[in-house]
Design a protein that fits this description.
Number of helices: 15
Largest sheet: none
Structural class: mainly alpha
Strand content: under 5%
Distance between the termini: 58 Å
Low-confidence stretches: none
CATH architecture of the largest domain: Orthogonal Bundle
EC number: 2.5.1.141
Mean pLDDT: 93
CATH superfamily of the largest domain: UbiA prenyltransferase
Family: Belongs to the UbiA prenyltransferase family. Protoheme IX farnesyltransferase subfamily.
Oligomer: single chain
Number of domains: 2
Number of strands: 0
CATH topology of the largest domain: Tetracycline Repressor, domain 2
Shape: flat
Order of helices and strands: HHHHHHHHHHHHHHH
Membrane topology: Multi-pass membrane protein
Radius of gyration: 19 Å
Keywords: Cell membrane, Heme biosynthesis, Membrane, Transferase, Transmembrane, Transmembrane helix
Pathway: Porphyrin-containing compound metabolism; heme O biosynthesis; heme O from protoheme: step 1/1
Length: 296
C-alpha cells in the first residue's frame, strides 16, 4: 500500500454525506433566533463539516473489513489499498479534536459538546455497536445524522428548542426509509458482509411495511413547522406535494411483489429520498427568508 493522494483522504470524509450534514446544519443555524457574525457562522459550519468528515473517517477505519466485501464500498480508500487503516484513524481523531475545540472557542461549549456527542454517537454507538448487532441499526443510529441541524441551532442560541428538535425529527424519520430502500436492492451485499440489515433479518415484506410506516411518520413530521408557526404556506405546499410523492413511492414499493420490479422500485425510492430531504429544507429556509423580507 501507499501513494495515497489528497483525494483519497478527502474520500475518507464521505463528502456526499458531509454535504447533507453541512446543508442541514446551515438551515438550523439560519433559522435559529439570535445574531451570529457571518465569519463566526462560517467557522461554525466548517467545524460541523469537519466533525461530519471525522465521523466518516472513523467509520471507514472501523468498517474496512466489511467494506471490502460489499460492491458499493469495495473501492473506498482503505479496502482498495490506497490508504492505511491507521492513517484513517489518525485523520478521524485529529479532525474530531480540531472541530470540537474550534467550535467551542468560536461559538459556545454547548454546541461543541453536542458536536462531540454526535461524532461519538456515529463512530462508536452506530459503527462499532449497532451496525453489526441489530436490524434496528439504522433507526437508532440515524440520530447521528439528524443531530447537525440542532448543532447549527445551538451554535447561535447556546441551547436547543422545540423548533430545532423538529428539524432533527424530520431527518431522523427520513433515515429508515432512505437506507432500507437501499438495503432492499443491495441486500446481497449486506448478507455477504454479515450486517443484519432489516431485509436480511426480517425479510422483504416486513421491510416494506416498515418503510411505509416511517414514510407516513416522516411526511407528518414535515407539517410540524407550519403547525408550530415557523413556516408558512410556501413551505407547507412544497411539503405536501413532495410528501405525497414520497408516500406514493412507498405504497408502490409495498404493493410490489416481483423481485426485479421490487428492486427497481426500491431504487426509485432511494434516489427520490436523496432530493426529497434537500427540497424540504430548502423550502423551509426559502419560506423563512421571504417572510423576513416581507415578500410573503
Amino acid at each position: 500500500m501507499g501513494g495515497a493522494r489528497v483525494g483519497d483522504y478527502f474520500a475518507l470524509l464521505k463528502p456526499k454525506v458531509m454535504s447533507l450534514v453541512v446543508f442541514t446544519a446551515l438551515i438550523g443555524l439560519l433559522l435559529a433566533p439570535g445574531e451570529i457574525h457571518p465569519v463566526v457562522a462560517a467557522i461554525a459550519i466548517l467545524c460541523i463539516a469537519l466533525g461530519g468528515g471525522a465521523s466518516g473517517a472513523l467509520n471507514m477505519w472501523y468498517d474496512s473489513d466489511i467494506d471490502a466485501v460489499m460492491s458499493r464500498t469495495a473501492n473506498r480508500p482503505i479496502p482498495s489499498g490506497r490508504v492505511e487503516r491507521d492513517d484513517a484513524l489518525t485523520l478521524g481523531l485529529v479532525l474530531s479534536f480540531f472541530s470540537v475545540v474550534t467550535l467551542g472557542l468560536a461559538t459556545n461549549w454547548f454546541a461543541a459538546g453536542f458536536l462531540a456527542f454526535t461524532i461519538f454517537f456515529y463512530a462508536v454507538v452506530y459503527s462499532m455497536w449497532l451496525k453489526r448487532s441489530t436490524p434496528q441499526n439504522i433507526v437508532i443510529g440515524g440520530a447521528a445524522g439528524a443531530f447537525p441541524p440542532m448543532v447549527g441551532w445551538a451554535a447561535v442560541t447556546g441551547g436547543v428548542s422545540l423548533e430545532g428538535f423538529v428539524l432533527f425529527l424530520i431527518v431522523f424519520l427520513w433515515t429508515p426509509p432512505h437506507f432500507w430502500a437501499l438495503a432492499l436492492y443491495k441486500q446481497g451485499d449486506y448478507g455477504a458482509a454479515g450486517v443484519p440489515m432489516l431485509p436480511n433479518v426480517a425479510g422483504e415484506q416486513a421491510t416494506k411495511v416498515q418503510i411505509l410506516v416511517y414514510s407516513v411518520l416522516l411526511v407528518a413530521s414535515t407539517l410540524a413547522p407550519q403547525v408550530l408557526g415557523f413556516a408558512g404556506w410556501l413551505y407547507t405546499s412544497v411539503a405536501v406535494v413532495t410528501g405525497a410523492s414520497f408516500l406514493w413511492l412507498a405504497v408502490k414499493l409495498y404493493r410490489t411483489g416481483a423481485d426485479t420490479q421490487m428492486r427497481r422500485t426500491a431504487r426509485q425510492l432511494f434516489t427520490y429520498s436523496l432530493s426529497y430531504l434537500f427540497i424540504i429544507f430548502l423550502a423551509l429556509i426559502t419560506d423563512y427568508a421571504m417572510h423576513s423580507l416581507g415578500v410573503l
